[in-house]
Specification:
8 strands; 44% helix; 16% strand; binds adenosine-5'-triphosphate; binds magnesium ion; alpha/beta; 270 residues
Length: 270
């Protein structure tokens, strides 16, 4: 049965998609991975498939998470979950459910998203070892549905002041979710500092704030911090993880691998 992990922060641009994508690639070496793009910005879909393949998928009306969450409404026939799943670059160890822009409508209307997502994912949960859900930077019925089916939430944070002040809000929302859905509790796997660049004093001040806040609220903070590297945006342009770009330095790759090791340990992934 797959471990299901939601990658979430209300703050935008903290690396949710970048981490989901690179984590998926790192884990697929010996695990079966499903990534689900829950963001109407569809960054993860385009990042994994590349611009051309993603847009040709839309052109042939391939069903996405939007159609999945709208199932049962007029014009949205019931489908087998496998019909929503695509292989990433022909690799059968890494699958994806894409997103598309129209998902923003579902975010405002789909009051039953929790049940639909659960009913669609339950039948395929044994086909995977890890399922990663990349969320948009807002709390909505979509993030609630992600929490509803997840074992854990992974919280990327950039070492910047505005990221630190968003943490209590997310923490509060997770607590509210757990009070509302006491049979579907989600656990915080941890917060991971992403984009550490040694910038003095702001970077260090922000890290000190994050450490203090995590200690006070008993939020596990990853020991590994993901370093700032231009290889991440370059990788996104090439639809490649940093391990496969010709740019990434060995220490950037080994830094990310350390994070993956800690992630596996915390999530109980062998
Ligand atoms: N460790 C890093 N070093 C350098 N750049 C990074 C790093 N992590 C992410 N980035 C870059 O920061 C930008 C934002 O990353 P990303 O899109 O993954 O964030 P996000 O949290 O998913 O954003 P959104 O909230 O809009 O979904 C991207 O350009 C990405 O390439
Ligand atoms: Mg994103």
């Amino acid at each position: 049965m797959a471990k299901i992990i939601t990658v979430m922060n209300f703050k935008g641009g903290v690396g949710k998609t970048t981490i989901s994508m690179n984590l998926g690639y790192a884990l697929k070496e010996n695990k079966r991975i499903l990534l689900i793009d829950l963001d109407p910005q569809f960054n993860l879909s385009q990042y994994l498939l590349g611009y051309k393949a993603y847009h040709s998928l839309l052109a042939r009306d391939a069903p996405t998470i939007y159609e999945l969450l709208e199932e049962g409404n007029p014009g949205f026939p019931i489908k087998d979950t496998n019909e929503y799943i695509v292989c990433v670059n022909g690799d059968d160890r890494m699958h994806l459910i894409c997103s598309k822009l129209e998902l923003f409508r579902t975010m405002q209307t789909a009051t039953n998203a929790c049940t639909i997502l659960k009913n669609k994912i339950d039948p395929i949960v044994d086909n995977y070892d890890v399922i990663i859900l990349d969320c948009p930077p807002t709390m909505s019925i979509i993030s609630e549905a992600a929490f509803f089916i997840s074992d854990y939430v992974l919280i990327p944070i950039m070492p910047e002041y505005l990221c630190t002040i968003g943490l209590p809000l997310l923490y509060q929302s997770i607590n509210m979710f757990n009070q509302k859905y006491y049979n579907n509790q989600v656990q915080i796997l941890g917060a991971v500092i992403n984009g550490e660049d040694g910038y003095i004093p702001e970077g260090y001040d922000a890290i000190a704030d994050i450490v203090k806040w995590c200690n006070t609220n008993q939020i596990p903070l990853f020991n590994s911090r993901i370093l700032y590297s231009r290889s991440y945006p370059k990788g996104s342009r090439m639809a490649m993880p940093i391990t496969e770009t010709p740019y990434a330095r060995w220490y950037t790759i080994s830094n990310f691998k350390n994070f993956v090791l800690e992630f596996k340990g915390k999530a109980g992934i062998k």
